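Quick one: structure tokens for this chain, please?
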Amino acid sequence: MDAHICREHLEKLLHEETGTLTRLEGLLDQEHEYLVANDVDALDRAGEARQSCIIALVAIEDERRSLCRALNVSADAPGLNQLLNWCDPSHQLKKRWAACADRAERCRNLNDRNGALVSARLKRVEGMLDVITGRAHQPRMYGSKGGYDAPGRNPNVLATV
């Protein structure tokens, strides 16, 4: 493969990845709005769309790794850097690659924000269920399998404070 063909292929992949990350960023913002509004139906739809973006991103990454293997370059960041230096002496793709990495970082932060909200809500629901079931004032026991057990179920547990 010559450098020009490699550059075109990487440019196509970068274009697809940027578009997919842009869609994912919007979906994660919408997902947050749905979480705040407790809109379960919209969350289900958003989850399906988000999963579609993730599948597309994995396919793009697989194709990029295949290109690296075909050119006998490691499929990690230094290998991709080496490939970009070879096929894109103008460094235009490198700049776009950096912008794409920034967008991916924003998506990770939005996903973490949504995950923190879901986690907080689950803790709240767990607390309410403990009150309803009368377990709120019982000591919490940490079981040997890494989770909390009800007191008295397993003699080989330690109580948490």
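DSSP finds four helices and three strands in the chain.
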